[in-house]
Amino acid sequence: MVANRKPIPSEADITRLTGHNFPGGFYTVAHWENFLLTECTGAALLPDGLVHPVALFHIPIVGAGTSIAEMFALGQAESDLSIMIESYDWEIFVALREETRYAINSSITSANRCRNEQGDLYDRIQFCFEIHTPDHGLAARVTMTWHYTRNML
């Protein structure tokens, strides 16, 4: 084993992550935040206080009471560079609006050990975040699937 390398978590440690629930919470996109996010994309501000979809990269994580650092730690990432993104799936059922308080819940929906075509080991972990309107309707669902690469020597 190379010095300073974290041990590879057991397959059981990874698979038992399935069903893990994050604390949940609330998120409100302020006008200034939506303005800055929209400006970063080079787009014009959307009308009537509509939130730019790019906000779906961070609203679910923060609103669910977690962080990227915690998500890395749960999967026992070897480093910040060991995460590979398989997919981000955004389902928007109701347009998100500024200054609206959304309830967010989240869980890990699957976690399993895999090997790629070259035989390299990785763990595939899928996170699902649901964003609910103030009247409890489902506004959006964000499903993120990450690969936690494992360096084996």
Q: Main attributes?
A:
153 residues; alpha+beta; five-stranded antiparallel beta sheet; Thiol Ester Dehydrase, Chain A; 4 helices
Summarize the structure.
With 153 residues, the chain is of the alpha+beta class. It is 18% helix and 35% strand.
Give a description of the structure:
With 153 residues, this protein is of the alpha+beta class. It has one domain (11-149): Roll (Thiol Ester Dehydrase, Chain A), CATH 3.10.129.10. 18% of the residues lie in helices and 35% in strands. It is built from four helices and five strands, in the order H-E-H-H-H-E-E-E-E. The protein has helices spanning 11-15, 31-41, 59-63, 68-74, and strands at 25-28, 83-92, 101-115, 121-132, 138-149. A five-stranded antiparallel sheet has the order 1-3-4-5-2. Strand 3 and strand 4 (121-132) form a beta hairpin. It is elongated. The mean pLDDT is 94.
Instruction: Outline the biggest β-sheet.
Output: 5 strands, antiparallel
Please report the total strand number as a whole number. 5
Number of helices: 4
Question: What spatial form do the alpha-carbon principal axes imply?
Answer: elongated
What order do the helices and strands come in, and which of them pair?
Blueprint (H helix, E strand, L loop, with lengths): L10 H5 L9 E4 L2 H11 L17 H5 L4 H7 L8 E10 L8 E15 L5 E12 L5 E12 L4
Antiparallel strand pairs: 1-3, 2-5, 3-4, 4-5
